Amino acid sequence: MQVFNRNVSIRGLTVFGFEIVLISGSMTLAASLHGAFTTTDAPAVMLSKIVLVTALCQLCFYYNDLYDLTVVHSNRELVVRLLQAAGAAAIVLAFAGVMFPTLILDPGTFVTALGVFVVAVLTWRITFNHLARDPHLEERVLIVGTGKTARVLAQQIGTNQDFAYRLVGFVDEREKATYVRHHDILGTANDIDRIVANRHVDRIVVGLSDRRGRLPIEALLRAKMSGVRVEDATTTYERLTGKILIDDLKPSWLIFSDGFRASRLTRFVKRMLDLSFSIILAICTSPLMLLTAIAIKLDSHGPALYSQERVGEDGRVFKIYKFRSMRSDAETGTPVWARDKDDRITRVGRFIRQTRFDELPQLWNVMRGDMSFVGPRPERPFFVEQLAREIPFYLQRHAVRPGLTGWAQVKYQYGSTVEDAMEKLRYDLYYIKHLSVFFDLTIVLDTVKVILFGKGAK
To answer: How far, in Å, CA of 74 to CA of 69, rounded?
Structure first.
């Protein structure tokens, strides 16, 4: 669910918003049944407790992927994930009740509320899933073009559940390497008016790789004037996937597209938060860092810390600091990409990489201003030079400070190839385009999920 920019999933927001009402309503009902509003607690105090418990419950829902509509595919899976989330919420609230008894609802009230909102949410989700499959509530999409870009977009439309899009078919412009099924091709550019009328098209997406002299301007203009949405394939792909399609990306799209313009205020607030949290986190984790250093020294020969040159904002080279997770002789000569399940990784190294304890010394880099908490992962100069030659727009990822974590790290698994670097760049450019403090917060929440459940990058 993307709630930090204009590419908002209406379905995701609907589910999230309605469940705020269901969970908080269940809490209020249970509190009333148990007479909580008639005790010494003022109604305002009780309402604040309900808000807190609702937020904790929805956080558990979030960490069980209940707000990722592409993950839950069946009612059985929905029930399992809902019960897991409810169980996790009960455990968290039981622990919180011991630590902060005055801030949380009493056990009897919460158990009653738990039973009510599990039934209510389950009923709501099944009803929503049924309504979401109604073709009358979907946008009918026509793609102009049948090349690689058009096919990639069609695949995303077919698998994405967050947006109510249904692919009507393609307009054939006889591009090279056409692999679209013949019966999905509804006609040529001359037939757009007829297709829009007969197929009740709501949105036209232009997926032509080469538009010079081939773009059906007049037909698209008439469709636009008749109320049909017309947009570029890159824009649609961005909305569906949370990344930017760079394969056929034109510099003009980057120049004229909304975004890529974080204000001075946003950058200042981001820097102040980086500085504050890095100092607080360094103090709180200092015992953990000491234990990690001791474990590394006991496990293998060599220093506990190591430094390495990385490329930062505006291409500036700086030294990054990490706990050593590989053998001290892991690399000699030409730099080599680290791989998932790399045999150079030590036993302790494997654990600290999975938990990201190896990143803790980079808090010093954040304090110095070399890095931010959230941003593209900094790469070594040797690989930057190589990737910049092979991947278009690669150097644009240096428009912001690199980060301890980032959109690419939480959305994509560990990679060690040029193709992996290209996929991560798609996410990095999306992050730079939509950079905001709230977006950073969602990435931090996702990072916790990665650490707890081993999803995303390692």
So the answer is: 11
Give the span between the Cα atoms of 72 and 79, in whole angstroms: 10
pLDDT at 394 over 80: yes
Class of domain 137-241 (CATH, top level): alpha beta
| 395-407 tens-digit pLDDT | 999 999 999 999 9
Residue type, 140: R
List the alpha helices (DSSP H) in 380-417: 381-390, 407-411
Question: CATH 3.40.50.720 region(s) of the chain?
Answer: 137-241
Q: What is the pLDDT of residues 240-266, one digit of tens each?
A: 999 999 887 888 888 888 888 888 999
Rounded CA gap, 359 and 230, in Å? 44
Query: In whole angstroms, how far apart are CA 344 and each of 83, 120, 248, 377?
Result: 41, 51, 37, 21
- Residue among 433, 453, 456 nearest 443 (CA): 456
Inter-CA distances, 384 with 378, 388, 399, 416, Å = 9, 6, 14, 13
Model confidence at 105: pLDDT above 50: yes
State if pTM tops 0.70. yes
Q: Which residue has the tokens 């026509």?
A: 142
Q: Is 276 exposed, middle or buried (CB count within 10 Å of its CB: 0-12, 13-18, 19+)?
A: exposed
